[in-house]
Design goal:
By secondary structure, the protein is mainly beta. The protein has seven helices and 39 strands. The protein has a six-stranded mixed beta sheet with strand order 15-13-38-18-29-22. A hairpin with a 7-residue loop joins strand 34 (about 495) and strand 35. Helix 1 (about 5-15) runs antiparallel to helix 5. The relative contact order is 0.11.
Amino acid sequence: MSCTISDFEYAYFMVGPTGPTTSMFQIHCQNPTIFTTENFCLGNNTNGYPSFSWYMWGKYQQFGCSWFDNRLNHWNAQLPNITNAAHSSHKHAKIAQFEYLKVTCGCGPPVAPNNNAKTKKQRTAGIKKKINKVQFDNSVLDSIGEDRSINIYGDDFGAVDVMVIDGDGKYYNFKTKSFTTQEYSLRDLTLSGGSASVMVSFPKVASDSNYTVTVLASSKHNTIYDNSVSRSLSYSKKLYQYTKNTLTLQMGSILSLSGFTGFDGATNNFTVDVTKHKDSVKYPFTIVGTASATRPFYVLKTPTNDMIVTKENRTIGSAHVDIKTRDGVRVESIKWPINNIVGLKNGMILSGTNVTAGTTISNYENIVYSQDKKITNVFEAGLQPTGTATITDERVTSQAGNVVFNKAQAGALADDVIGVYAYGNEKIKSLTGYDVTLTNIKATITKPTTTTTEVSAGGSSADIAVADRQGVINNISRVSGIGINSSLKNPLITAGGGADGAGDWTMDAAQTLENGVTLTVENTSNVVTVTGDIEIKKVGESNVLIVLDIEQFLATS
């Protein structure tokens, strides 16, 4: 069936022998005392619809198209015998309705020529149809390809042309579902029931791409856009499709402290491939760090999200920029040109061959007091744009500027490549575009074990010979095992730590131990495992290495 109850309702209100003024509804309203049972003007309805429309709709569902000819033949046969003017108008209204519905429902032409029996499409041909909304998901496309629907909402029988062009200038062919060099658009997509939609299959890509989706209101079909959507006949949006980047999470010593020399946090890292600029994914992670045999450690505190750090390089300009205060004092060597300020923030840490230790990006303010009044002699923001911004895919990606440091720098800094370190979620997001959060973090050491290699001297001794001394820090490590005096707290190792291979440990309490007894080192280790969850709320432009800084939660002495 190609029509609905709404078509029957429309016919009741709007179709008459000479137009809406002679419709069945108008006849009912004009003669409320004659027509009472089906009179919508009197409030009579079935399920909210005019009772006549609902009854006739039910019969159409039961008998199909034959119902129209049945009623038209019956009512036309009654006309010669009707003498009452109101009843005659009523009967003509019924006939006009069913001639219209017979055409609208696709059941053939009217019984007799009737200008009011045009289809809704024919009746609205000269009326402007509006497009009220164009809707589609314009979030980042996955590099493996995706199907996306384009949905258009507006007046029935409005029509649009849809065109999709990729970044290489190729056109989407809606028939073959592929992009070709031949110009192509989907023409005369017509709205029905207030909407129309079409599906686009975006392909798998090996490099970044983008697509322009254009929906043109069809002037041929008298279609325009509502001004809230577009003030022209065209509506366009851009979609981006990016390849995947690799995020690596591992442990490491950022300042390369001597106590952590030889620490390996890279071998057992966590790696995941994620689509650039795509939203929120969450994974459990496990990373393992291993110290050299003679450089054990212990867990000082539970790791937190503020201990993660990443690094990017920047290039310093050829000479510093002087700062002059109001009273003419020159402040030298804290303000320097830099090739790109995008992503930098106050508080980020700088490192490099010629960078002064402890340098961060910082505002500079010189304050003096006069008659107990605070006067700002000079203020310099930590970051100052000087060049034109480079915009890629609607994002600012580079802009030259000046950077202000909290400490003066040597002239040798000129033209150096320096490292910029960003700690914590907000600074990492600013520097790299990655919005990353670690939760449920737990650090667990692997307890070292060894065996005794001789019977305790004299039956009881504080000096214990063992097969391997690895993993011990003097005055922090304790030891447990069979034969350790249970009435005492696990003894503290006071000497013999920080070494590898066979040798003696000295304990703070004498023990009587057999040869070959297994001992377990408590509190310290050479291996730490960190577990938790990593939520990646936003993916940046490039691959990224995020390091959990062991200097923040491990200690070596």
